[in-house]
Automatic annotation (TrEMBL), chains A, B:
<dbReference type="GO" id="GO:0000706">
    <property type="term" value="P:meiotic DNA double-strand break processing"/>
</dbReference>
<dbReference type="GO" id="GO:0003677">
    <property type="term" value="F:DNA binding"/>
</dbReference>
<feature type="domain" description="Spo11/DNA topoisomerase VI subunit A N-terminal">
    <location>
        <begin position="152"/>
        <end position="213"/>
    </location>
</feature>
<feature type="active site" description="O-(5'-phospho-DNA)-tyrosine intermediate">
    <location>
        <position position="181"/>
    </location>
</feature>
<dbReference type="InterPro" id="IPR002815">
    <property type="entry name" value="Spo11/TopoVI_A"/>
</dbReference>
<comment type="subunit">
    <text>Homodimer. Heterotetramer of two TOP6A and two TOP6B subunits.</text>
</comment>
<dbReference type="GO" id="GO:0007131">
    <property type="term" value="P:reciprocal meiotic recombination"/>
</dbReference>
<dbReference type="InterPro" id="IPR013049">
    <property type="entry name" value="Spo11/TopoVI_A_N"/>
</dbReference>
<comment type="function">
    <text>Component of the DNA topoisomerase VI involved in chromatin organization and progression of endoreduplication cycles. Relaxes both positive and negative superturns and exhibits a strong decatenase activity.</text>
</comment>
<dbReference type="GO" id="GO:0003918">
    <property type="term" value="F:DNA topoisomerase type II (double strand cut, ATP-hydrolyzing) activity"/>
</dbReference>
<feature type="domain" description="Type II DNA topoisomerase VI subunit A all-beta">
    <location>
        <begin position="217"/>
        <end position="253"/>
    </location>
</feature>
<dbReference type="InterPro" id="IPR036388">
    <property type="entry name" value="WH-like_DNA-bd_sf"/>
</dbReference>
<feature type="binding site">
    <location>
        <position position="267"/>
    </location>
    <ligand>
        <name>Mg(2+)</name>
    </ligand>
</feature>
<keyword id="KW-0539">Nucleus</keyword>
<dbReference type="InterPro" id="IPR049333">
    <property type="entry name" value="Topo_VI_alpha"/>
</dbReference>
<keyword id="KW-0479">Metal-binding</keyword>
<dbReference type="Pfam" id="PF20768">
    <property type="entry name" value="Topo_VI_alpha"/>
</dbReference>
Amino acid sequence: MSEKKRRAGAAAAGPASSSKKPRASAAASYAESLRSKLRPDASILATLRSLASASASSSKSKAAAKFLADHDPPDDPTSSYIVVADQDSASVTSRINRLVLAAARSILSGRGFSFAVPSRAASNQVYLPDLDRIVLLHRESARPFANVATARKATVTARVLSLVHAVLRRGIHVTKRDLFYTDVKLFGDQSQSDAVLDDVSCMLGCTRSSLHVVASEKGVVVGRLVFADDGDRIDCTRMGVGGKAIPPNIDRVSGIESDALFILLVEKDAAFMRLAEDRFYNRFPCIILTAKGQPDVATRLFLRRLKVELKLPVLALVDSDPYGLKILSVYMCGSKNMSYDSANLTTPDIKWLGVRPSDLDKYRVPEQCRLPMTDHDIKVGKELLEEDFVKQNEGWVKELETMLRTRQKAEIQALSSFGFQYLTEVYLPLKLQQQDWI
Amino acid sequence: MSEKKRRAGAAAAGPASSSKKPRASAAASYAESLRSKLRPDASILATLRSLASASASSSKSKAAAKFLADHDPPDDPTSSYIVVADQDSASVTSRINRLVLAAARSILSGRGFSFAVPSRAASNQVYLPDLDRIVLLHRESARPFANVATARKATVTARVLSLVHAVLRRGIHVTKRDLFYTDVKLFGDQSQSDAVLDDVSCMLGCTRSSLHVVASEKGVVVGRLVFADDGDRIDCTRMGVGGKAIPPNIDRVSGIESDALFILLVEKDAAFMRLAEDRFYNRFPCIILTAKGQPDVATRLFLRRLKVELKLPVLALVDSDPYGLKILSVYMCGSKNMSYDSANLTTPDIKWLGVRPSDLDKYRVPEQCRLPMTDHDIKVGKELLEEDFVKQNEGWVKELETMLRTRQKAEIQALSSFGFQYLTEVYLPLKLQQQDWI
């Protein structure tokens, strides 16, 4: 039975909705007509193969590759911004030892002690167009123990340094919450130990994962990917519909292998589930991953590792609203409060595949599946138009302007109005065939 | 180097916190002294083995086994409450056909049509002590199309029936969100299509998973478990630290095998990560799972499946606060808004292993790691004391009374104050050794 017939049968079973049929049918039959535009998979695969090989050779991608490879030495005083790097436990431990010894010497010489902490104030952060990400500048503030204003924070800093030292010596990983609980009375609330942990990361010039303090994971991955999680070999084509949970500690991930042609980054788990159940990655070899909404650190680190090691193009499937774009920006440029670690957390050159504001008309998404933007949406959208990372991509500016002009948004799931598998059977294949990403 | 020495070394590295040391040290050294009480693992394993075999033979467990096996036939009019059951697609489809044919006949005979929908009002729900769960009684309300008050809802019901029919014919699974988007204009907002979906589930006498409408998953599992997810064989001892994401569609899970002695149900992902990284399941053969907070439907279905097929005891590790207990109650007795499906979603006879209010003194959790209960906490705690499912377990009542008297709560992570691995190295082994669950 054809999909069309199936849908017709389904519609017939819903007698009460017939009053709205004429309009919905027009959109639906147009949407179905797009199916006939699809070329054979072999032809689409050829497109994808050229995309994948271009990803290693084009000038833009070369810049990205350079970006991914380049790390200024973390303590290089000539660099105009702070770059933290992954460090092994021995090296982080010895950095802590050096800091503590310096403090001890300072105390013995009668000068008390003070930490020099890079300032993470907004005024010390800047977006660098060359790097295409937010970085932290070099301004530091002193945190002397012998000062009423900073005594507490200096104490907290010393305590966090000692705790990180203990974690590294045991060779284990802990969460920020664990860290907080080792001394609730001192830290007061978790936001304080978290903030100081970020300070310590800057002070030591290493990433938070090097400190073995991890965030809880929520991302999942399926598709043409094999890797080792803490030594266990994981074949992501054999992870059913649920997928493999992305490990919280990226330094236990190794042996990444793949025959995928691209990475498909998905905003929501509903779309992820559709793609996993339909085994989309077997039709078009790809790696599919989602952070289920706002990206967490573990998923960002994992995506970056995939990009660095496999050099695959990354295509993003997000909602057509300001938050979809904002999520893209976090993956690509990082978030402000972790700007010091932007080099390790960000993945440059992500293509916006869909759902884009222009898709709504192009695919004739029915009016009733579009949602009016709220005042807050419009505010966020306008703010995004001012962001450097949006401005430098003309296509993105146009799309965002379209969104703000029409004042309409839509979720990925809106495509379900053409049939539950429209996403995997028509929309995505057509997008790939037409190389319709920006 | 011993753990004690390590901790001492760590403490020495944190010079500024010395003022609080004496008290913390007393608790810490007591906590450490508990380590010496631990018998060899072989002896603890013997305890667990007897627990596991008891789980198949004790009278209480027999009742549970009966409970798990017994399903009143879903349409049995003699039963005093509604029981929905898992049904295969063919059977659900034919039930829908019958409903629609009845409606058609009714229309042709000039009487219009009306759905008889089981009422899901609180007054139609009751906790049955014999069954140890919340059930839905038989009261129904009519939903005629030819009535201004119900015309819309009857329309929505017909539409949802038709959509479910379409999903079943395609043999796929969709999310509630997908369903909503097929007709946004009719449904208005998702809470309406969700509510009608629950109605349809009751009307058809089948579970929501039988309708192939799934919730997004957030649970993860590791440990001594092998199962097939959509045909892919998953070995949960080889899922690294991240674990395997629990599949959203339980009917694609098959071939469950395990050599575990118990199932460890964990409230939070931080504790899950600790257990996974320390490979706790290799020392004490178990299956470890978490829903990362409030349990979702997929995790509850999965736990129940494990319990039914493996007949293992289930031990729960939750925060020592009213929400920890509330989470236990959802696993055990179900939530009110899905009472019609409580037989399929609940797992009876879960033991409360920890962290229990009495543990705080028993393990001398330092004062600074305990948190004062808020007014809202106290309110929730008092409400729980009135719940039948708490009342019937004397031990639980005592613990809850202790919590309310001391007005203190604590998270699982509070145990980190004795060292990050105290949970896996001392607390849990000692609990298991002492059979300290209620």
